[in-house]
Amino acid sequence: MDEVMLELNRKMDLLSAQVQFLTEQAQAAERQRAERAELMRDLTPIVNDAYRLTVEQLEEVEQYVDLNDLLRLLKRLLRNGRNFDKLLDQIESALDLVETVGPLSDEAFGKAVDTLEQMERKGYFLFARGGMQIVDNIVTSFGEEDVRLLGDNVVLILRTIKEMTQPEVMNFVRNTVEIIDREKDQPVQTSLVALWRQLQDPNVRRGLAISMRVLRTIGVQTGNGGTAAARTNGITK
Q1: Fewer CB within a 10 Å sphere, N or C end of the chain?
Q2: Cα 70 from Cα 76, distance rounded (Å)
Q3: 188-192: long-range pairs with CB below 8 Å, 24+
């Protein structure tokens, strides 16, 4: 009898545990059902508003949109799902590159700003503005015919400038200017005797001879033969 009672008590305990488990499951299911019902009550107005807004927006574009177009677009999106995935991977890689290069670009930008400030202090931009003014004056001062003649004679002009900028020529011009600047305030004797004494100086006679030679060259250039030669070289009087 004792064994029977013990077995019966054990079964009763097992049955009580099962009933308690079923009760907890029923309570959990009831809570979930109540939560779903509450969620539906909360979402219903939102869904209704979204549906109403969607209908209003679709009505505005109804004449421009066809259902077949939407279906075709949806199919294309589904077919290109892998392409979109690759595109997102590339975008992520680009963002990583931007994050990596960002500090370097900031440093380079700072150096560029410093360089520009130094150029501003040294007057590069002021010189550039002045150069633009010079170019503007040159452009507005020359006509179409002047530009054509300049193009015809640009080689001769460059050769002349090249010859004029040779070191020996520049030194000669600089020394001459220095002597003129130094001697311009000195007293000058113009009497025949003083001039005769100066002619006794070999350097004076050499300078006079060179001057006469230069004057002769100028005379030849300004004569008929010189004009014809100048025209032959593409230079107009």
Answers
A1: N
A2: 10
A3: none
Residue carrying the six token digits 């779903």: 36
Distant-in-sequence contacts of 226-233, Cβ < 8 A, 24+ apart: 233/156
User: What is the pLDDT at residue 225?
Assistant: 52
Largest Cα span, the chain: 172
Residue 145 is encoded by which pair of tokens?
């015919």
The pair of structure tokens assigned to 222 is: 């300004």
Count Cβ neighbours within 10 Å for each residue of 24-52 and write b for 16 or more, e otherwise: eeeeeeeeeeeeeeeeeeeeeeeeeeeee
The ranges assigned to domains in the chain are 1-50, 192-237
Q: Mind listing the pLDDT tens digit for each residue in 39-67? A: 888 888 888 888 888 878 777 777 776 77
Report the chain's mean pLDDT, rounded to a whole number. Answer: 79
Q: How far apart are CA 153 and CA 160, in angstroms?
A: 11
CB 235 within 8 A of CB 156: yes
| pLDDT tens profile 69-121 | 778 888 888 888 888 888 888 888 888 887 777 777 777 777 888 888 888 88
Residue 36 above 70 pLDDT?
Answer: yes
| Angle ∠(33,35,37) on CA atoms, nearest 5 | 70
**Can you tell me whether residue 61 is helix, strand or coil?**
coil
CA neighbours within 13 Å on the CB side: how many for 225? 4
What is the secondary structure of 11-50 as a DSSP string?
HHHHHHHHHHHHHHHHHHHHHHHHHHHHHHHHHHHHHHHH
Q: What's the one-letter identity of residue 118?
A: Q
